[in-house]
Design a protein that fits this description.
By secondary structure, this protein is α/β, with parallel strands linked by helices. It has one domain (about 1-255): Rossmann fold (3-Layer(aba) Sandwich), CATH 3.40.50. The chain has 7 helices and 13 strands. The chain has helices at about 30-45, 65-70, 85-95, 150-155, 160-170, 190-195, 250-255, and strands at about 10-15, 20-25, 55-60, 75-80, 105-110, 125-130, 135, 155, 175-185, 200-210, 220-225, 235, 240. Helix 1 packs parallel to helix 2 (about 65-70) and helix 5 runs parallel beside helix 6 (about 190-195).
Length: about 260
């Protein structure tokens, strides 16, 4: 397979359902956050026997989260939107590479331009996303010595704030649809505020800690449109590594068993 990948791209095994992923090393490359998002979404996404569950990803980049979610759940239909042209192209390649044309569709779109004829509002059972976790003015966004513009756009809210992501998610969900997201712990308050402002009630929150006894660095959130307060569940913390820097049994299960 390596010989068929153009210069400037990589391809690696995902270790699930035989799926593989093409990436641009100069762009955003998937990591633990992406794996956790796909696991959390799959584990909490409702099941429908009547029809495929319709899911939308906002800000797919190369499509790692959508591909991983498709590997976990064959009963769902995923649409994904990505603003960066290069990343949207690679997402299309990953759809074809894994023969997911009948279950996954990618669109080169700015989420702020939704809805469209192909992606209508109020039609998705779930929206999932890993929005940029820093404001555009909160860092060296003009420095490309260490970070490419593509990577900066993935990490900084240069083309859409957390408020934009949450507002879009709310408008695309059905009246009882669910939002799933992963983000850095530092964004927790602003995301909660945005969710409540857009009628998205937090239903389940999992804080992720690098080690036992360390502060949480990441959180996973499920919020339901039109949900009632109270009713939020704070799960036990998810610990990534043990004292020997090895994955804990919980993380090992997420990566290799669930």
């Amino acid at each position: 397979m390596k010989g068929n990948i153009p210069t400037g791209e990589t391809c690696e095994e995902l270790g699930r359902a035989g799926f593989r992923l093409i990436q641009d090393p100069e762009g955003f490359c998937f990591g633990e956050d992406t794996v956790l998002l796909s696991w959390f979404t799959s584990s909490n996404l409702r099941i429908s026997k009547a029809r495929p569950v319709r899911v939308l990803e906002l800000g797919t980049n190369c499509g790692a989260a959508s591909v991983l979610l498709a590997a976990r759940r064959q009963d769902i239909r995923i649409d994904g939107v990505e603003r960066q042209e290069r990343a949207a192209e690679i997402f299309q390649k990953n759809i074809h590479l894994n023969h997911l044309e009948d279950r996954v569709s990618g669109y080169h779109l700015d989420l702020r331009d939704l809805p469209t004829a192909d992606i209508p509002k109020n039609t998705y059972d779930a929206v999932f996303m890993n929005p940029p976790y820093q404001k555009a003015e909160s860092g060296p966004i003009t420095s490309t010595a260490r970070h490419t513009e593509k990577l900066l756009e993935a990490r900084f809210a240069m083309h859409g704030s957390v408020e934009d992501f949450v507002s879009c998610a709310s408008s695309m969900l059905t009246s009882t649809g669910d939002l799933f997201l992963v983000n850095r712990a530092q964004t927790f308050a602003s995301v909660m505020k945005a969710c409540l402002a857009h009628q998205l009630t937090p239903k389940k929150i999992t804080f992720v800690h690098p080690y036992e006894g360390s502060e949480a660095t990441v959180y996973l959130l499920q919020a339901r449109k039109g949900g009632k307060l109270p009713g939020t569940v704070i799960t036990p913390p998810l610990i990534v590594r043990d004292a020997n820097r090895e994955y804990t049994p919980a993380l090992h299960k997420i990566y290799f068993e669930d």
